[in-house]
Amino acid sequence: MKSKIVLLGPPGAGKGTQGEKLENELGYVRLSTGDMLREAVRKGTSLGVKAKTYMDAGALVPNDLIINLMKEKIASLGNNAGIIFDGFPRTVEQAEALDQAVDIDLAIDLNVADKVLVERLTQRRTCPQCNAVYHLAYNPPKKAGFCDKCGSVLYQRDDDKEATVKNRLEVYRKNTLPLVDYYKKAGKLTVIDGTGDIETIFDQVKKALN
Ligand code: ADP
Ligand code: ADP
Ligand code: ZN
Questions:
Q1: pTM for this structure?
Q2: To the nearest whole number, what is the mean pLDDT of the chain?
Q3: What is the DSSP string of 68-120?
Q4: Which residues constitute the domain of residue 21?
Q5: Average pLDDT of 18-38?
Q6: Considering its fold, how many domains does the chain have in total?
Q7: How far is the CA of 186 from the centre of ligand 2 (A)?
């Protein structure tokens, strides 16, 4: 099975949802820069203080901060770990830094139309404790308002409100979309339709890993 996997795709494409399943069912380690940054903000670390204004605006946190954070994480895992990169890289500069740190085996691009993304993001609910994500209509928790996995009270991320969502989609198009080409040129790209049933998409993702 392929070992070092990048999940590409716009905000709301399902990277976290699929990455969580890969972690729980296939034993990959999921590294989500978004989750790491939110934890840093909650703890009030110096990284969190620096990152917060960018995140609130739906802008990208500066490359040097993100690249250092990821390099430390990767070094702490050792060479043999199967890793899912979720939400990283988001710029060509980040992708180049990642290529220096590990050999990426595969980049999966989850393809979803903008209109669907807005609907997904504005109704997303997130667990502050274990980072599980839900959707009010498409993937609701068993008990409304509470995480199935750890029982914590779910919340709506500030940047999942409509005004910020629009900006994040623009930022994606400008800075992150070029990565589709970057991995295509490297012969590492697989495109998967990110609409439809979560399980059906997961079957396709698993096939791409073999
Ligand atoms: P990303 O990590 O790419 O931003 P998420 O995995 O957090 O995306 O998914 C965004 C929202 O869409 C969440 O509310 C999630 O529950 C929902 N979602 C994920 N996959 C699907 C799907 N295949 N169909 C419908 N809703 C989905
Ligand atoms: P989503 O699940 O919608 O794709 P994330 O949780 O990955 O969003 O990211 C939330 C915010 O954290 C981004 O809008 C950005 O401000 C910051 N962020 C996360 N990953 C990166 C990254 N690789 N480079 C720069 N900023 C990042
Ligand atoms: Zn939870």
A1: 0.97
A2: 96
A3: HHHHHHHHHH-TT--EEEES---SHHHHHHHHHHS---EEEEEE--HHHHHHH
A4: 4-112+175-209
A5: 96
A6: 1
A7: 24
